[in-house]
Amino acid sequence: MLYMLMIVLTLVFHIWMVVRIWSAAGAIWGLGSLFIPVVSVVYVIIHWSDEDGVKFPFFAGILTSVIAVTVQPTLADFVDPEMAAAMLEDPEIQRQMAEDPEFRAEMEALTGEATASTESEDLDTSDSDFVDDGVSDSEQGVSAPAPKTPSTFRSVPSYSATEQQAWKLAMGNLPRRRGTVALAGNDASIELPERMGFVDRQPLALALASSKESLDDDVIGWVVHDDAPIDDRFNAWWIEVRSLDKGHVPLGDVASADQLDRWKERAFSIASEEGKASGKLLSFLGFPVAPWVDEEAAQVAWVASYGAGGDQAHLCTGLALGRERQVAYTMRVKYDDRWQELCLLSVRTLARKTTFDAGQGYPDYTRFVDDRSNVDAVDYVVGAERIGKGL
Asked: Could you tell me whether strands 311-321 and 326-334 are parallel, antiparallel, or unpaired per DSSP bridges?
């Protein structure tokens, strides 16, 4: 911890010196010494005989910075004990521990701290009661938190206290963007509802890696509601934001409500064939509600229900179509009416809040200039074209 202490002290002495120079010689000298080290050196030389209180923080800062450079930083300077315990299961970390006895000793010391801390805490991982306050379809998005139940097809996973704590540390402080969020490189932006935040891919990928999870290549971030227990590994839920570059995807006859029965038959056939090919017991259970479409804005949202391996789930998708690019919002949740309402409302609201840049909207498509996809929106609705890894 000496390394981090010296870094902190160096910063403190530097700020102290800048304040003293600023008060003695004005803003120009102060700003110069803040950003350009040689300015403070010149000031001390010129004003060596002055009793302005600058020399002490100047030389103290030099001393602490020299110590920081010469002191070897330790693993404890950068990794929490809980995070170190989670890292132990990484094959690369295990290889490094086998090759480097010093690194192994540091890891063992840190994980020993985590074990002692865990044993002294009474971790409560039980589900809390859910009070259904009702979910309204408003411009503000989701108005009630989701039921605290797992959101996957599989049975409830078993996470150790260390794994839960690692997830909590990784997810608890993810930076979130608010308001209108530009999707860089996607020619689009999202006007987020008031209580939703956008987590960018880079910090999200780093956080998931610490918990031995990963992101699909087309995921550019998550949208997280303020009431979502994102730091609770058992009950976390989120909406994945995906960037699709499929060329121009036409709406097709997605607005034809009288085609719903035909879509159901097609979706059932596709799921059955996919199940046979993969060896899974997979079946399509229907559309709980009719797909929603805004033809003018080229936006679609739907809920498709599936059964897989004895479990059932809703796959909720919101799709905003642009000139040659698409933004998709996906959420997979437990087969439950409350979950169905929540996830449909979430993806539909986000699709409605998506705007493409000037010249990149759905009506801007030029037949003989732009690429055209060989699928349409209906293919996504029935599962002929999967978004993400599929089922």
From this structure: antiparallel
